[in-house]
């Protein structure tokens, strides 16, 4: 099974979303050596690659946005596709040493590209990010992000900065984005999010103090929602944001 990505689009059979086989990859000019293993295990059939943005899909196939395949692939298949995308992006963006520009070489038996000149090693990038749902009595804080792909309300989120713990990121991002202080952080769960290489780590937290003051370049709207309020359009079930919100819905709310 081969994962062929064009940016964040995956090549699949147009009608069935089946992945291309080795013969099709050869037909569109992909040499076997260009395909990266998705797993290190000997005999694993999964390979992945990023192709030129100008490559057209062959007849009967289509490049489909990876996000659009949620619900088409099962959970295991979607997780595998996400892993394949991260590995393909790592290989595409680390072809040359970041220190001296020498072409990098693949290290056997691990996901590592190493410079033969200066020895710099590059591993697949993982960018940790926090997500937090803030509770205040029977209400929860939901926000609509200014640059989000959809006009949905969701939990607050932000990337970890150098020198921070994930808990410090929660406190900093909450104060920066909505001007609130929180406490009683409780770990909820995590989810790899391959757009392109995040790891979302989710928490709940209790409101401590402050009035909502949004960071306008990040947040379009943020407010408390509680029993009796009309439920907004919220994050889908495919994401940990959707799981987090649905696990903490105000009394009387039901979400699809």
From TrEMBL:
Cofactor(s) named in the record: Mg(2+); Zn(2+)
PROSITE patterns: NUDIX, NUDIX_BOX
GO terms assigned for molecular function: metal ion binding; NADH pyrophosphatase activity
Keywords: Hydrolase, Magnesium, Metal-binding, NAD
Biological-process GO terms, alphabetical: NAD+ catabolic process; NADP+ catabolic process
Domain of life: Bacteria
Domain (Nudix hydrolase): residue spans on this chain: 124-246
Presence of the UniProt keyword Nucleotide-binding in the record: no
EC number of this enzyme: 3.6.1.22
Pfam families linked to this entry: NUDIX (PF00293), NUDIX-like (PF09296), Zn_ribbon_NUD (PF09297)
Catalyzed reactions: a 5'-end NAD(+)-phospho-ribonucleoside in mRNA + H2O = a 5'-end phospho-adenosine-phospho-ribonucleoside in mRNA + beta-nicotinamide D-ribonucleotide + 2 H(+)
One term under GO cellular component: cytosol
Family listed: Belongs to the Nudix hydrolase family. NudC subfamily.
UniProt protein name: NAD(+) diphosphatase
Organism in which the protein naturally occurs: Achromobacter animicus
């Amino acid at each position: 099974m081969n994962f062929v990505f064009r940016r964040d689009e995956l090549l699949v059979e147009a009608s069935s979303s089946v992945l291309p086989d080795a013969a099709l990859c050869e037909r569109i000019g992909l040499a076997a050596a260009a395909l990266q293993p998705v797993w290190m295990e000997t005999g694993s059939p999964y390979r992945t690659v990023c192709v030129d943005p100008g490559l057209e899909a062959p007849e009967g196939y289509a490049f489909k946005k990876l996000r659009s395949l949620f619900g088409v692939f099962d959970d295991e298949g979607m997780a595998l596709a996400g892993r394949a995308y991260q590995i393909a992006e790592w290989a595409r963006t680390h072809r040359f040493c970041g220190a001296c520009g020498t072409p990098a070489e693949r290290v056997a038996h691990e996901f590592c590209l190493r410079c033969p000149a200066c020895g710099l090693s590059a591993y697949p990038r993982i960018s940790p990010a926090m997500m937090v749902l803030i509770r205040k009595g029977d209400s929860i804080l939901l926000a609509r992000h200014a640059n989000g792909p959809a006009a949905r309300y969701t939990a607050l989120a932000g990337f970890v900065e150098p020198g921070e713990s994930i808990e410090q990121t929660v406190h900093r991002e909450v104060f920066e984005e909505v001007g609130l202080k929180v406490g009683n952080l409780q770990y909820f769960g995590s989810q790899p999010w391959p757009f392109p290489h995040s790891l979302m780590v989710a928490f709940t937290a209790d409101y401590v103090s402050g009035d909502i003051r949004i960071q306008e370049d990040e947040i379009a709207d943020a407010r408390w929602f509680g029993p009796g309020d009309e439920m907004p359009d919220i994050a889908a079930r495919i994401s940990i944001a959707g799981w987090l919100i649905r696990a903490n819905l105000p009394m009387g709310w039901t979400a699809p």
